[in-house]
UniProtKB/TrEMBL annotation:
Name of the featured protein: EAL domain-containing protein
Organism placement in taxonomy: Bacteria, Pseudomonadati, Pseudomonadota, Gammaproteobacteria, Kangiellales
Residue ranges of domain EAL in the record: 23-276
Organism of derivation: Kangiella taiwanensis
Amino acid sequence: KAKRSADSFVLYQQGQDENYQRQLHIIGIFEESMADGSMYLEYQPKVNLNSGQCTEAEALLRWQDKELGFISPEEFIQLAELSGNIRAVTNWVIEEVIKQIILWQAKGLSLRVSVNISVDDLLDKGFRFIVRSLLEKYSINPRCLSFEITESVIMSDPELAVESMNIFKDLGISIAIDDFGTGYSSLSYLKKVPASELKIDKSFVIDFDNNEEDRMIVETSVELAHSFGMKVVAEGVETESCLQQLKTFGCDLGQGYFFTRALRANDFEAWCEKFNSN
Ligand code: C2E
Ligand code: CA
Ligand code: CA
Ligand code: CA
């Protein structure tokens, strides 16, 4: 028995070591991956539930590496944050999104696209200047851009977070609170946060049809958000019946596999044209 546990200890050590090597490797290739096309963006529609039109999209990072294959954003975003690469990654994402917005506008497709913002971005005062200079460089309407910021990022330094959010708001970029319901027990921060959108976390929406409590949480969140003058986005809309319920709750936008998964820009464009003409 002692031997067995000694063996499994060795295995465990080897497993840890392999994982460590993998992480080091991933951290080492961030920069080239942004440049060589193995890192790219997909876009997932946010559908306006009143008009039935797709008016917004969320940009989601993807990474298909030559050697490692598909690396999930859950894995590499965390590594980017830990290794200090996230600032460069976010800058790259914003510039890619701005270029895409301009391409779409030239084709008559006018969309607001949201970008996920990490804690290092929000709390870095240099980030504001980079955002402003990107807006100037491409002279796009800042209303086409929005930032998704999670509750936990806001709570890491509420004062500085709110200060930064106000600066983005003044620039004309709208702010969404992401993963709402997962982060924080007190809601008092809501009145200080200059957000125009509240995104209800998919964990409350996915199992909606079978879960009375989830439905209550969502219904209450919609009322709460509206009382603060915010629009509500439900993520994780996977079924028709979920969509119908969300409409009866007065939810403003829906995002999820029921409409489509995130798509490459060209596929997104085709999807959107078809969806909006129905
Ligand atoms: P998130 O911001 O909460 O993004 C929503 C996630 O839910 C996405 O996962 C999306 O593909 C997934 N999703 C959308 N609809 C459905 C649905 O109907 N059912 C289910 N089960 N899932 C759905 P994804 O793309 O794997 O991204 C995971 C997380 O990685 C994101 O969560 C976000 O926190 C992070 N992430 C992705 N791209 C970026 C980025 O450019 N920057 C930063 N900082 N984080 C990013
Ligand atoms: Ca998000
Ligand atoms: Ca989310
Ligand atoms: Ca999330």
